[in-house]
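Q: Could you write out the predicted structure for this multi-component system? I'm mainly interested in how the pieces pack against one another.
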Amino acid sequence: MKKIEVITRNYKLDDVKEALTGLGIKGMTVSEVKGFGRQGGHKEVYRGAEYQVDFVPKVKIDIVIDDELVSDAVEAIAAAARTGQVGDGKIFISPIDDVVRIRTGESGSEAI
Amino acid sequence: MKKIEVITRNYKLDDVKEALTGLGIKGMTVSEVKGFGRQGGHKEVYRGAEYQVDFVPKVKIDIVIDDELVSDAVEAIAAAARTGQVGDGKIFISPIDDVVRIRTGESGSEAI
Amino acid sequence: MKKIEVITRNYKLDDVKEALTGLGIKGMTVSEVKGFGRQGGHKEVYRGAEYQVDFVPKVKIDIVIDDELVSDAVEAIAAAARTGQVGDGKIFISPIDDVVRIRTGESGSEAI
Amino acid sequence: MIQSGDTAFILICAALVLLMTPGLALFYGGMVRSKNVLGTIMQSIIMISLVSLEWIYLGYTMSFGPDVAGLIGDMSHFALAGVTAAPSPDYATTIPHIVFMIYQCMFAVITPALITGAFAERVRFLPFIFFSLLWSVLVYNPVCHWIWGGGFLATMGVLDFAGGLVVHVTCGVAALVACIVIGPRKGFGKRSFIPHNLPMTLTGTGLLWFGWFGFNGGSALAADGIAATAFVSTHIAGMAGMAMWTMVEWYHSGKPTTLGAASGAIAGLATITPAAGFVSPNSAVIIGFLGGLLCYLAVLAKNRFGYDDSLDVVGIHGVGGLVGTIALGLFASTAINPGGADGLFYGNPSFLLTQLIGIGVVGGYTLVVTWIILKAVNAISPLRMEENEEEVGMDTAEHSESAYQA
Amino acid sequence: MIQSGDTAFILICAALVLLMTPGLALFYGGMVRSKNVLGTIMQSIIMISLVSLEWIYLGYTMSFGPDVAGLIGDMSHFALAGVTAAPSPDYATTIPHIVFMIYQCMFAVITPALITGAFAERVRFLPFIFFSLLWSVLVYNPVCHWIWGGGFLATMGVLDFAGGLVVHVTCGVAALVACIVIGPRKGFGKRSFIPHNLPMTLTGTGLLWFGWFGFNGGSALAADGIAATAFVSTHIAGMAGMAMWTMVEWYHSGKPTTLGAASGAIAGLATITPAAGFVSPNSAVIIGFLGGLLCYLAVLAKNRFGYDDSLDVVGIHGVGGLVGTIALGLFASTAINPGGADGLFYGNPSFLLTQLIGIGVVGGYTLVVTWIILKAVNAISPLRMEENEEEVGMDTAEHSESAYQA
Amino acid sequence: MIQSGDTAFILICAALVLLMTPGLALFYGGMVRSKNVLGTIMQSIIMISLVSLEWIYLGYTMSFGPDVAGLIGDMSHFALAGVTAAPSPDYATTIPHIVFMIYQCMFAVITPALITGAFAERVRFLPFIFFSLLWSVLVYNPVCHWIWGGGFLATMGVLDFAGGLVVHVTCGVAALVACIVIGPRKGFGKRSFIPHNLPMTLTGTGLLWFGWFGFNGGSALAADGIAATAFVSTHIAGMAGMAMWTMVEWYHSGKPTTLGAASGAIAGLATITPAAGFVSPNSAVIIGFLGGLLCYLAVLAKNRFGYDDSLDVVGIHGVGGLVGTIALGLFASTAINPGGADGLFYGNPSFLLTQLIGIGVVGGYTLVVTWIILKAVNAISPLRMEENEEEVGMDTAEHSESAYQA
Ligand SMILES: Nc1ncnc2c1ncn2[C@@H]1O[C@H](COP(=O)(O)OP(=O)(O)O)[C@@H](O)[C@H]1O
Ligand SMILES: Nc1ncnc2c1ncn2[C@@H]1O[C@H](COP(=O)(O)OP(=O)(O)O)[C@@H](O)[C@H]1O
Ligand SMILES: Nc1ncnc2c1ncn2[C@@H]1O[C@H](COP(=O)(O)OP(=O)(O)O)[C@@H](O)[C@H]1O
């Protein structure tokens, strides 16, 4: 099994979710993050004091799936999240040793 | 070493924490996430406009531990977090190559 | 490629970011987390009811980089984040199978 | 004859008392968990429409209409018949009758809103509406009549300047009954119920204090020396309550908290309410201190008894109203207000007895009728949310909304 | 001669109306996405300085200066010349002239602030300032003069107690034009625009209601029976609007929402505004119900038409002002206010016609002039934010700030 | 004789000034980091109890009791002896004496609360309480007596309508001394201290502006033409301050910010405070502009000097009070207020000199005594939090609370 971590623009969340459910993927976990990258940040000014804010709001989507689904999922995600502008984000793929569903105690592919 | 990622109901956090400290595990890192899964979401209405909100609040708990502790930990977590209702969540286990304790520079099992 | 996960004090974020950009690392993703560890928590009191709050605010920084950069990065991070007090946090290193840049579709080291 | 100064004052005071209801919504809303904040706010603000509507058709005439046997007002003022821009011959004769009516309306609105703190985070909206409406009609209106509308307690000489009995004791007793009948929140005693937004609670406290000047000061029904006395003792007791709670808590649990300061202020303000226009500033200091101290102890005691009066309506409003009503029996002075009475400390023990009877009657009546209403409503439509809806929270389960988006 | 009671009342009412602008800022601010909350608040509060400055040099004299041909006031009161602490011979003769001036200033401030809800989350600050200033001068001041400053609509007998036409119809029509000219938000119809902080919106609602007592009650310009009538009908219509919206929404979409309760309250308050001092409390109940119902339907209808009136200025203020102005033609009664008129239901159909003419004139004028102003401003400096700035949000793009830090 | 209009007005004004303290708590609370928001709010609201208690026993009689050698009031009014519902023979003779007393109390409350912005986010609560109490007794009470209680500065002819010297200069000077003695926040100059919740700050701004009408308008102590003048110039200077700061900042740093608009408003309001009832509306425009401009420059200058006046008490209140007191020496006109004076621009340079002497005396005295108090308190109980407690934040370290829960 693999974990796919997607970091992308907030407002692309719904599109990515739909792309994934389109592939029959039924679960994912989302968190709000701040990203630093080529996209750059912006200036903020408080009573004359300037601050450079380098972090921009992003959303992170974690999906754990079976190995054979990975390439389709990555393609679908990239298609859904792409705007072509700097800051579209990344997809990271990493290994998962095992999964357990808490409710039932099932493990492995069963549990996803 | 392994990383155990637990995604479960917010109000189970304290129970899971106690289960883990009961096994002598002394550290963990928690974040608030939103989950999409079989549990389903709910409808929201703002001035007559209806929205389907698919994400439900969950908590994510990351614990890095030595390999030999993994199975005990998983069992304890599952026992503590289980309600038997859909939405109890998942446990993901993944490999960790190394750990460093920032304060001392220690690494490996020492650092946990 | 590796993922470096840093969990450290909030106010060290800027220092760590500078240390990493000093090494030419151009991207990272940050989230707010709560940590449980040796540092301990504090007591809160609401209308006479006492609660022990075991979690302290921390920041988590995820950086995906090529393998050869890892040891330098870890050293730089640890140096930047260290105060010597309990609670400085941890660095976790884990394997990444692949990376995709959404905007371009590039993958592997290219995509970071 | 209409006096513009008095009219200006009572109109603005009515506006101030109206503002207390959203103030209360914030005070309570900050103390619940974030998934219940809208539901909690809603339980307060909906009273503005529910009770105001009831008031103009039923409440005003039941409370202030011509007296029937000392028990209730008759229907003469149904739908505000005879309530015009001319002064009433009976009440507040220097301001338009409708000004008196609307000022009193604001009191009727906030009283059932106060009760909601007792069963916060676990009640369904529909039966809650039934309960609040019935309670306003069957408890608030009669008690208001007995004391302020020329009913039998007024005849007996029971005094209540601005609602120690009419507002605080009734809501406190109702709160106690309600939180016992409805039962504790899921996880009570195991999970921690920590306020989700204390700055919101503190904002509410500020608005409540501000509004309380209208509540107590305006109860003089004129911009005169009595209003001045009431206004001053309100501020004094509020600050004394805050000072006392803060000090006792600091001593007792090691730190002074902002929620404690806010709670002490509300305790002091509630405690002075019945006495505001009848006592000297120096008595107000003592009454405020007493309020702060005894309400703090009452809130601590609750944790022993184990009922889930979630936002401490009993401990603060109930005990505050009780202590204030008794304190009035001790500290009242006709030197301050010739229209009032002398209390025990001014040589008149019988007035204290009168006040105790007032408490007994109002408390007993409220207890019984509230219990009956709760049982009746529960029989038709259960007040308690279903377990998993309670888990999900009132905001989505009862109102299909979320309070906050990142 | 100056009456201290009246002066006290109108000064405090002016303060209450001032408070409505920050109240509105919170009401609107809570409904936008968090990245736009500061920009939204700014669009309201900046009116306090922009329009007040305009008012003391131009607005007051254009609105209330000696009449020129029924169309506009002359420049006699430029820079408040002749506006002193002595009473005006023409307006509000029991209070200092400057009190009348500052009270009216607060109305001029909030009106363009109300419009901003229509084009929330997508407008650049500089051209927005141009638009608001021009609109105040070219729309608000003339219309205000026509109705309240002795202009031709006043002469015709058009009545507007506290701003159904002057404030709500003008801002509603301007809102409609503006949201069509400026176009919908990026992603409109696809992404969901969910309020980021409803407790903020509810806090704003509370402050607006509180301030509305000053808005309507103070429009009597004295602390008298008319003020009492206006105050009471304001409260009654607000609560009836809230009750109606809540019930209709509960029935129609399955749950009563807090945003619905707040919206209904504002709808009821807007609807009663033109009628407040001219109708009986029982008429106010009906007017409030009508406001709640029709504004609800108007907001639903919007979703059909597909224009992006983001915070429903048209549906709530425009429709509210319209309905209230017509309702005044139906329910006005000289028994309540001898200085008013009798409406259709009191045997005088011609007054209804007068009101309809008033609506036609004010609506038509506002529509045309607003459109011209928008086009002119757009030609000089485009109102609409650039796409990626809109994505980033007004707070950082227009104001270099962030509302919240963890 | 008691006038109901005046009594109504001053009572409501007292309520408005009370509301400024929670307003200030929000204004300041929004500007700190989220871990310190409760501690910051607490430092303001606790003044309501601390200083009110001090006021009724000591403060009122020291400030307004019978004069002793031009320096201080005697103990005649200890515990409000002789302060009743009858008017004072000396002050505000148309309202009850206790109304004057409680109105003045609200000023005494907010002044030390204003200082807290200077040393925000780093002071321990216990020594802070000592400091504030001593400062109220040793600085506020004497200065208040000198200027408003018939002391030597009043005799010399120094004028201060509503607290430019008594409130703003004293708190500004104390702020400067305090932030230097206490030292900068940990990480000052390296880490960024960004406001955690600007909508909270803007809410506070709205409440402060609203309350300021009571602060300045009520300082006429009657609902008359002077009150009208003061009310109007307050609004005008507030809006002019906001306009000026916004424009200067826009020009200077590229964007107009909401914090800038709020800061400019407060600067304008503070600047007009000493002058409010003595100057014409047109002068108020200029004074407001001056306030906005000079306070902006002062805040920028601070960044050069490197002291950590965290929330700009010196730059806004100190400089505002200073500029306003001088401006009064320029713009005062007996045509506006016969009880006032003529300033330089009205042909009377000596009055400007008098004002400068007033500034010198008040500023010098405050500086020295504040420094002594700080040193004395530090010797007994160090004001500064320990390093790691400062890191953890005041909310948990000092008050065992958290402001927000998800
Ligand atoms: N090496 C990295 N490790 C972790 N996260 C990264 C890394 N590089 C980029 N990111 C995340 O991806 C986001 C987008 O990256 P950015 O360089 O701005 O644009 P793009 O994805 O178009 O190349 C960043 O905001 C950050 O959250
Ligand atoms: N494939 C997945 N990848 C990542 N997170 C998942 C996945 N499936 C479920 N989750 C997370 O687990 C939570 C619970 O899953 P759900 O399907 O609702 O119930 P259950 O755990 O009882 O099967 C989800 O809300 C989501 O956060
Ligand atoms: N085993 C672990 N797994 C995951 N996170 C951990 C673990 N141990 C510690 N942490 C994280 O590191 C933080 C710091 O750890 P702590 O034990 O307090 O101090 P130190 O890092 O100095 O040893 C914790 O707050 C927690 O977020």
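A: Regarding packing and overall arrangement: The beta strands of chain B are 2-8, 28-36, 42-46, 49-53, 56-65, 90-95, 98-101.
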